[in-house]
Design a protein that fits this description.
single chain, 544 residues, mainly alpha, Serine Threonine Protein Phosphatase 5, Tetratricopeptide repeat, Arc Repressor Mutant, subunit A, 77% helix, elongated, transcription, HTH luxR-type domain-containing protein, Sig_transdc_resp-reg_C-effctor, TPR-like_helical_dom_sf
Length: 544
């Protein structure tokens, strides 16, 4: 086969989106147009270094041909690929070259609009409204030069900025507009993948589970039409794994997360795949595997919170969990980042006995949920508020709030979250003296945990039958043990002798089937005893 024949076949493969074939057949290209095809095909089939080299050669060929705008375009896409791989220093150099070339030729051209994309991205996290202004300019370049890729990037960026600024409804409308251009086939495969993944991320930021489900299905179909596609297939698997986890398909979610880790390799997005895998291990009780996956996510630059703190909580290390969450929440200023921490922060602060801090976090989460206006955000917020009400001793208000939360989780088809909410409902019933109601709720929760494979949750409910077998005084002692109190401190707080406290703890260990204070702490958290604020709310007997 002649070189000309290979090039013709390579162009045909490129048009069919057979990226691996196009990359192989165009490897001998020398003309800049074919080098650009080679560069894009290489990027899309995972040949990053080959793609960089092709962009460089195309850039040089266009310069030699006296086509500075085309040379600048190639320099920009070389830089953009480096940015996506977090190679910021090299990317900065190529962006500077792009800018200099365009300044030297003093051209009012579409390429300047692409440069504005990187300017806007630089401030997206720190100043969303400044980014919105810049992305509005990107969209105007796209409209003025009738450039669909640039127009879509402008709409996408404006939507991202508004979501991060808390203007969820307006932001989501722009994200949908960007996706309309993608699904209509109006943009290039490179930009289509960028838009898909960015929109899904913002759906997560906005707690918009319905949109996330729809766009994940669309991304899956888009990836399936291009079997050689590498960069976006891994991210698609991560999104699929998260949705599967929410909907209770945990074995399949683990498979998807593992495959995402393999496919993403050393790419920056692999960090999120390892974090998702860690979260699945955590809820399944595979604590050693969870810890290793969290550490791998951290090594790759992902802050492994709140998952790692929740792991420590499940292991009975309440104070370590509380310290980690206080650090994470304290150093996170942006609304989006805080929104993903606050539900866990409420849970852990209650376990640590800091109900005031839990209340503050629940109130902040409620404000965020009101702005988001999505069922998922409302479910998270409502459960957090109910948990705090229960911890504050207002079981009747908690019961009403928690039943509303359960309804939302049930409507979202989120069985694990629904079951965890039913545990809290059972504890509220128990505090109100409704033992039969508590037994029904806890039985339903235990059954759901067993069906899901939520081993830690199921074990916590299975030990000694159900929470409530302890006397009221034993519950009080267990709560203080879980708070890290020594026997002497417990004796002083409850006006008991240390000998009596020792006896209570021995009885508690026997009843719940543990042999250490750390295991008792884990049981107290998982079973909900930390919500019980004193001996006066019931129990079969009170030893003093």
């Amino acid at each position: 086969m002649s070189a000309d024949g290979d090039l013709a076949r390579g162009r045909s493969a490129f048009d069919r989106r057979a990226w691996a074939d196009a990359y192989a057949l165009l490897s001998a290209a020398v003309e800049p147009e074919d080098l650009e095809r080679l560069a894009l095909a290489g990027y899309l089939c995972g040949q990053d270094e080959g793609s960089d080299d092709a962009w460089l050669r195309a850039h040089q060929r266009w310069l030699a041909a006296g086509e500075p705008r085309s040379a600048a375009r190639c320099a920009f896409w070389l830089a953009f690929g480096l940015l996506l791989r977090a190679e910021d220093a090299r990317a900065s150099g190529w962006l500077a070259r792009t800018r200099r070339i365009l300044d030297d030729c003093a051209a009012d051209c579409v390429e300047r609009g692409y440069l504005l994309v990187t300017d806007a991205l630089a401030v997206l996290d720190s100043d969303p409204m400044a980014a919105y202004t810049a992305f509005t300019g990107v969209g105007r370049f796209g409209d003025r030069f009738d450039e669909p890729d640039l127009r879509a990037l402008g709409r996408l960026g404006c939507g991202e900025a508004l979501v991060r600024a808390g203007k969820i409804t307006d932001g989501v409308a722009l994200l949908d507009e960007a996706m309309a251009a993608v699904t209509a086939g109006e943009v290039s495969p490179r930009v289509a993948g960028i838009v898909y993944c960015a929109v899904l991320l913002e759906c997560q930021n906005a707690f918009d589970l319905r949109r996330a489900r729809q766009w994940t299905a669309a991304l899956t179909h888009w990836c399936d039409t291009q079997p050689d596609l590498v960069p976006y297939r891994g991210q698609c698997l991560v999104h699929r794994a998260e949705l599967m986890q929410i909907h209770g398909d945990w074995p399949d979610a683990v498979d998807e997360a593992r495959l995402a880790c393999e496919r993403l390799g050393d790419r920056p997005a692999a960090a999120t795949a390892h974090y998702r895998l860690a979260e699945l291990h955590r809820v399944r009780g595979e604590f050693a595997a969870a810890e290793e996956a969290f550490r791998e996510a951290s090594r790759r630059g992902y802050r492994a919170q709140p998952g790692f703190a929740l792991l420590r909580l499940a292991q009975g290390q309440v104070q370590a969990a509380a310290a980690a969450m206080r650090t994470a929440v304290g150093e996170t200023r942006d609304r989006v980042g805080r929104s993903h921490l606050l539900s866990a922060h409420v849970e852990i602060m209650i376990a640590a006995g800091d109900v005031a801090e839990a209340r503050a976090a629940a109130d902040e989460l409620a404000s965020i949920a009101a702005g988001a206006g999505t069922a998922y955000a409302e479910a998270l917020s409502t459960r957090a508020t109910g948990a705090v009400q229960l911890a504050e001793g207002d079981a009747r208000a908690a019961l009403t709030t928690l039943r509303a939360a359960w309804t939302r989780w049930h409507e979202l088809d989120a069985p694990y979250e629904a079951a965890r909410t039913r545990v809290l409902i059972g504890l509220a019933c128990q505090s109100l003296g409704d033992r039969d109601g508590a037994a029904l709720e806890l039985d339903a929760a235990g059954w759901a945990f067993q069906q899901l494979g939520a081993v830690p949750d199921a074990q916590a409910l299975a030990v000694s039958g159900r929470p409530g077998r302890l006397t009221a005084r034993e519950e009080e002692v267990l709560r203080l043990v879980a708070a890290g109190k020594t026997n002497r401190a417990i004796a002083a707080e409850l006006f008991l002798s240390e000998k009596t406290v020792h006896r209570h703890i021995s009885n508690i260990f026997t009843k719940i089937g543990v042999t250490s204070r750390s295991a008792a702490t884990a049981y107290a958290y998982e079973s909900g005893y930390f919500f019980r604020r004193g001996a006066a709310d019931g129990g079969s007997s009170v030893d003093s």
